[in-house]
Write a structure and sequence with these properties.
The chain is globular and about 65 Å long. The chain is 41% helix and 14% strand. It is an alpha/beta fold.
Length: 494
Amino acid sequence: MYSPVVRAETLCWPASLYRIRVNFNLQPQSSTPLVVQLVDGVRRAIEDGTLRAGTKIPSIRQFAHAHSVSVFTVVEAYDRLVAQGWLVSRPHSGFFVRRRVGAAGSGPAVPMGAGVGAAAGTSFDSMWYLRKIFENRHLSMKPGCGWLPGDWLFEDGVKRSLRTLASEEVDLGGYGDPKGYLPLRQLIRDTLAEQEITGGTEQVMLTQGSSQALDLAARRLVRAGDAVLVDDPGYANLLFGLRFLGARLIGVPRTPGGYDLAALEARMAEHKPRVFFTQPRLQSPTGSVAQLSHLHRVLQLAEKHDVLIVENDIYADLDPEPRPSLASLDQLSRVVYISSYSKTISPNLRVGFVAAHPDLAEDLAQLKMIAGLTSSEFAERLAFGALTEGRWRKHLKALRERLAKAHDRVAGRLADLGFELFSEPKAGMFLWARHPDMPDAAEAANKAAEHDILLGPGHLFTAALTPTPWMRFNVAFCADERVFAFLDSQRRAV
């Protein structure tokens, strides 16, 4: 057991603000993780009035230096405190004790719930974590990242398309079509028809990657305070974006075969959500694939409870098996379909798309114009050239085979170390795994960063940002044996 010892020292601060320096009697050898010790210590200081509402607390680096702990540990602690409603993060200003419901400026009070302010603070803090840690490209080993290595992408196709585009006359004086480059939209329409998703070109809109498509769908369909169903664990960027909008995230547990259908039905009946954001195929972070029977049941429940579905199918091109999608079963009546070329051509091109019911497609186009006018026609033409120059299908075939081999190897290495695998899809990028001797993946990720390794701690993918032993592994970035040597050292250290 540990007992945080807290003392406060008031420092001068401009504009009548003040900071509090809080000291803790941390116990590194305790079975209680340092992150938990820090969270509990700050929480108790707020509850007993040592840290008062509106107080600015030390920056992450100041706190880490003062208490001789890792920056990553403090980031994780602050992130949890924001998520739990004890702190708020203000851009360019720092972290402050949140003014909580029932607090009149002093004394303990119940922390704020998941309202607009709480969601905004959580989202900002989590996105800071993503930028600084989770996607920290200076770390040389990246088994936790969410992209493919450069030499796995369609570099040759992009170069050939760029040469062709350079030889053509391109109109640089306009903004382009609000829905995007027409020939690429027509190509996507035809590709979707091959996947038994029928619709007109006017139902397809190009976006700056799937991230913009998800953001537009969320802003059109979600209002602050709305209950929104999400995969749990689920797509991290989407979860952060929904929190920023003030949504109440209702997690639907994933299973190796798709969904916990009983839980899904119960949550629809209880919370009456308007929309369900989901990723049936090669899901991030679990890699799981939903069975056809699960897809049918999801649509039945959505019809019964009048729920719209946003299907994130960004890994479709990595799937060697032709599978039905929610959109193919629904024909874009209740389903909004989103995908992207960023995972297979190049993340830098930022070319994705959304296909939807004609009326909703028009609404999304208006939102796109309001937010940033049009997407880049130059990037869209570049992607179109890469897709049509004749070697695209060969590239996809080779990429799928390479990923399948990586899955076999990484799954075997993790199993040898005693990891439990959530599922073994043998396709896509991800494996979701946990070790019985590593109860908090965030602690392991913090230590890994100090060894030049980027891990994918599971709490980033949960609806409630709760601690978890699960970790996401990108099989394409697990070729370096130092990754497994580190994991082995962590399990042996327990």
